[in-house]
Specification:
Strands 1-2 form a two-stranded antiparallel ribbon. It is about 70% helix and about 0% strand. Helix 2 packs parallel to helix 15, helix 7 runs antiparallel to helix 15 and helix 13 runs antiparallel to helix 14. With about 300 residues, it is mainly alpha-helical. A hairpin with a 2-residue loop joins strand 1 and strand 2.
């Protein structure tokens, strides 16, 4: 292993490689890889969606607590957390779907940044030999080899590296006019303006995920809840972080994040429509109202 992260890099690298060999397209490989990851994480996502539904269900009680303790923020925080515990609610459930993506994102970053190691599955020694064949001189340090650049050069210099790898193993990073191996920095975007879509769409879809999560959980309507206030801050912080990542990391990661967000939005919509939870009975509501509601049923 090259690093401790290979515990997750290598298995996901094999999955990525298998998908690429099946579909033969780098962009579609990232899309299918993303969907498979979302399906694997579906049980956790389902649990979080149930938590958000419960949060939405206890909004009447939260509103009464906010009115009752509006001049005592410390007591409000204590009572709010107590209510969350009683209802089995995780107030940060809306953020977790994004947070749990980071280990996968790091692994995918390594796979995209080092495609010769994790997709072509070539050893360090072979990569060094390929570098020397293509560039005419040995690399001073293996860690400094730009594998993305080398992988691109291998396509045009197959006659020099044919003994190390078959033509079927070469990677084509083109996807609908985008080179997913490039890093769309501000300078690069100024020369190739279409790449501005990557940070815009990645950041925009991240905002939609946060906004919809807060709305479904009822957090968006809470004014005096410290947890809700923190969630609102994260609602803007996450999209800015995503947009920044999208202009400082290879474009393939921007595609991953966009597809992941779109699939997350679809999951939230479908689960919110079909998942039902037990609504806590409001003890402050008059008894005759509850009885009348039962008779209507």
């Amino acid at each position: 292993m090259n690093s401790v992260f290979d515990i997750i890099n290598v298995p996901l690298g094999y999955l990525f490689k298998w998908i690429y060999y099946v579909v033969g397209n780098y962009g579609w490989t990232i899309i299918l890889f993303t969907l498979i990851m979302k399906l694997i994480l579906f049980p956790l996502t389902l649990k979080q969606q149930r938590s958000m539904k419960k949060t939405q269900a206890i909004q009447p009680k939260l509103a009464k607590l906010q009115e009752k303790y509006k001049y005592d923020q410390e007591k409000l925080s204590q009572e709010t957390m107590k209510l969350y515990q009683e209802a089995g609610v995780n107030p940060m459930g809306g953020c977790l779907p994004m947070l749990i993506q980071f280990p996968i994102l790091i692994a995918l970053y390594n796979i995209i940044r080092k495609p010769i190691s994790y997709v072509m599955m070539l050893s360090n020694d072979v990569i060094m030999q390929i570098y020397e064949r293509i560039n005419g001189s040995a690399a001073a340090d293996f860690a400094r080899i730009d594998q993305i650049d080398l992988a691109n050069k291998m396509r045009g210099s197959f006659d020099k590296v044919g003994e190390f790898i078959s033509s079927h193993d070469l990677i084509n990073f083109d996807f609908f006019g985008f080179n997913l191996s490039v890093t769309p920095t501000l300078q690069y975007i100024s020369e190739h303006w279409i790449y501005v879509l990557i940070p815009i769409v990645a950041g925009g879809t991240t905002f939609l995920v946060s906004h919809i999560s807060n709305k479904m959980s009822g957090m968006a309507s809470q004014e005096n809840n410290p947890t809700a206030s923190s969630m609102k801050v994260m609602n803007y912080l996450f999209p800015l972080m995503t947009a920044w990542f999208a202009v400082t990391l290879p474009a393939g990661l921007g595609l991953y994040w966009t597809v992941s967000n779109l699939f997350q939005i679809l999951q939230m919509y479908l689960m919110n429509k079909h998942i039902t939870v037990d609504v806590p009975v409001d003890e402050d509501r008059p008894t005759h109202y509850r009885e009348r509601k039962k008779k209507k049923k």
